[in-house]
Amino acid sequence: MKQRMRVTCGVIKQAGKFLIVQRAGGTSHAFKWEFPGGKVDPGETESECMARELKEELDIEVAVGERLIPIEREESNVIIELIPFFCTIIGGEITLLEHLQLAWIDINKPIQYDLCIGDYSIVDQLRG
């Protein structure tokens, strides 16, 4: 039986654009772009995970909003459930603590970044 992993990701919108970040080298999906987030720890709610991950990765405080439709995908021997949430920055300045760079994208234009595969499904949801 395949292991399941729940991963949250933050959909942060400012001035009509959405935040994506580039993964560091030496990580899975090195140098790909993604909506920021991470694994749900045991005993942690999805919302708690979302707030914790954005604090750890970007040093920002967020209000976690609406949960979007999760995306499930299979990767080697693991099933990953990617759980996106709309988030609003309520404190701090974005500081890249784990990623190489950030970009603000207009989802109504072609994406010029090499996103992680599941993140394309989030873009499709946002385009509605």
Explain this structure.
There is one protein chain. The chain has 128 residues and is of the alpha+beta class. Helix content is 19%, strand content 41%. The protein is built from 2 helices and 8 strands. Strands 1, 2, 3, 4, 5, 6, 7 and 8 form an 8-stranded mixed β-sheet that branches. It starts with a strand and ends with a helix. The model has no long low-confidence stretch (mean pLDDT 96).
Judged by helices, strands and strand pairing, the structural class is: alpha+beta
Shape: globular
Low-confidence stretches: none
**Separation of termini?**
34 Å
Main sheet overview: 8 strands, mixed
Radius of gyration using CA atoms only? 14 Å
> Into which percent range does the helicity of residues fall?
10-25%
Protein name: 8-oxo-dGTP diphosphatase
Cofactor: Mg(2+)
Organism: Aureispira anguillae
EC number: 3.6.1.55
Can I get a quick summary?
This protein has 2 helices and 8 strands; from the N terminus they run E-E-E-E-H-E-E-E-E-H. With 128 residues, it is α+β, with helices and mostly antiparallel strands.
Layout of strands and helices, then pairs:
Layout (H helix, E strand, L loop, with lengths): L2 E12 L2 E6 L10 E2 L2 E3 L6 H13 L2 E7 L3 E5 L2 E14 L10 E4 L11 H11 L1
Parallel strand pairs: 1-7
Antiparallel strand pairs: 1-2, 1-4, 2-3, 2-8, 5-7, 6-7
Cofactor: Mg(2+)
Organism: Aureispira anguillae
Keywords: DNA damage, DNA repair, DNA replication, Hydrolase, Magnesium, Metal-binding, Mutator protein
